[in-house]
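Running this now, will post back.
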Amino acid sequence: MEHFTKYIDDHQQLIVEGRAIDLFVAYRFLRILTTPWEDQDAYRFGIIDDNGKLLRKANTLQTDEEKKSFTLLHRLVFNLKRILNKIPGVRTKLGTYATALFLLKQSVVTDQEEGDMIEKTFANWLIDNGYAHPDDLEESVMGIEVNLPKGKYKLTQDIFTDKSEIKGSKGDLVVAFSDTPPTDEVLGQNIFKVVHQKSKEEIYVALEDLEDA
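Update: finished.
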């Protein structure tokens, strides 16, 4: 019984420590996201410019301070910030934000709880800064079990990669070769994998990124 009690105590301690790590990652994510470019340490070291554009590659960083100012998390959040800065009218572009956050979570998140914490943090930031209404983030565009029907679609806006580069331009055709289930649901938006017809590469889109071709 004593061993079982110790096991329970240790397990609970791990849960507490895990949640603390999740909160710390979410806090760092939000702090990087909300800090102006010119106030970022990476800007001070000449790694990025005042628009977040990369001036120095990661393999050129030498000191510990430089490396700490441009970690994997920094690079991913910087990419998200650049995507946000490129898209006006945020309340009509939640699908694009959802896709960008999905790509970021794929790259940096290690478990579901951590991913949920980052998503919640980002959603609260969108609401607090007037970019979204709570109702926008609570209602899913489509049920998680509903597929994207097989067919060709036209992009209604530019689609970005996790490096904030344009991977599909507004008006390009994409194809769902079969009825496609959502890959994930982020910010109340279902994320689907389709094939960009011009490049033949897979890209991730939300429903609001598509219209019938």
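The chain has seven helices and eight strands. More later if anyone needs it.
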